[in-house]
Amino acid sequence: MSDDPSTLIVDVVPGPGRRPTLSRAALAQIACTADAITGIDRVGLRGAPGTGGNAWGVLTCGRFRDLLG
């Protein structure tokens, strides 16, 4: 995934002894902000909640259409 220039990589790094907790709205903000960057189609989120801490989660803005006005 890291070799794909259309993917923005975001590494979620919580503080010591803390697990990342990102709301669905926060995930939408990350994905849709990245979508506004020319040439970026999706976000690779490393350490995303629900992925076991090391796995990749792939986000696209379209996944959050229900949150968009």
Describe it for me?
The chain has 69 residues and is an alpha+beta fold. The chain has one domain (7-67). Helices cover 17% and strands 20% of the residues. The chain contains one helix and three strands. The protein has one helix spanning 24-35; strands spanning 7-11, 42-46, 56-59. Strands 1-2-3 form a three-stranded mixed β-sheet, with helices on one face. The longest helix is centred in the middle third of the chain and has 12 residues, at 24-35. It is flat. It starts with 6 loop residues before the first strand and ends in a 10-residue tail after the last strand. The mean pLDDT is 79.
What secondary-structure arrangement, pairings included, does this model have?
Elements: E1 7-11, H1 24-35, E2 42-46, E3 56-59
Parallel strand pairs: 1-2
Antiparallel strand pairs: 2-3
Keywords:
69 residues; alpha+beta
Q: What number is the mean pLDDT? A: 79
Indicate the percent of residues in helices.
10-25%
Distance between the termini: 30 Å
Q: How much strand content do the residues show? A: 15-25%
> Count of DSSP E strands?
3
Number of domains: 1
How is the main sheet built? Answer: 3 strands, mixed
Low-confidence stretches: none
Structural classification: alpha+beta
* Number of helical regions: 1
Indicate the radius of gyration in whole angstroms. Answer: 12 Å
Described by the principal axes of the CA atoms, the overall outline is flat
Strands in their spatial order, largest beta sheet: 1-2-3
In N-to-C order, the SSE pattern is: EHEE
